[in-house]
């Protein structure tokens, strides 16, 4: 395992781990306590970068990765499935000597987290799924495909990655997303996003569209799951709330929570609120909707 240390006290460990099959995954970690693994969404490897710095998570061992092909993790010359990405997550936890971890997955990272829990339940204490990618889905998911995914892929062929990424992220996050990467992560964020987006459209979008959660498998997932969606997301698409409701009914120990004033870009919109939600959920030890002291912007869904 390759590992290097950094002088930043909030990220005392970083490096590359060998995830097998010539895949190397870059990680950063800080802290001690219950392990929390952050699995980022598609298009941009630093959705979760601000959470690593949030004081709410000071009492935990927080591990953030760049998934294969993103950021500092080298690309590979073959198609990677959601199961491949899930295996890489497990390999990081194994190589770092982590016991059972809470996995926080955003968008496509959410379905990777689900797959990891199914494949390696020994490593997973619970899941926090932040607007997981629309699978399972219904009419709202189909509408998202027609209005956003299809046009983004069409633009990719005619106008390139930047145009495709803009259409996609405008469609799921709202146009305000464009200022958030630089606001939270600095001047190099835009260039990294474009590089990461190229990988997303080259390979990961195919993996997400291929993935399917079998109802029988879902019924065996005996881990607490908190499914998070943003109250502002339906301004762009109802697909994430639809998927949250479907997953809640499929999984044996799942709850939903809605965060007011936030949308699909919530890890960059308000990392402090997201970090506090993670802290409270892990502290509670279950997927029940948390009641943390600093979260005045959430309401639990009725169920």
TrEMBL record:
Gene3D superfamilies: alpha/beta hydrolase. SUPFAM superfamilies: alpha/beta-Hydrolases (SSF53474). This is Alpha/beta hydrolase. Keywords: Hydrolase. The keyword Hydrolase applies. GO terms for molecular function: hydrolase activity. Residues 36-137 form the AB hydrolase-1 domain. Residues 284-303 are annotated as: Disordered. PANTHER family: HYDROLASE ALPHA/BETA FOLD FAMILY, PEROXISOMAL MEMBRANE PROTEIN LPX1. InterPro entries: AB_hydrolase_1, AB_hydrolase_fold, Carboxylesterase_BioH, Epox_hydrolase-like. It comes from the Bacteria. Pfam families: Abhydrolase_1 (PF00561).
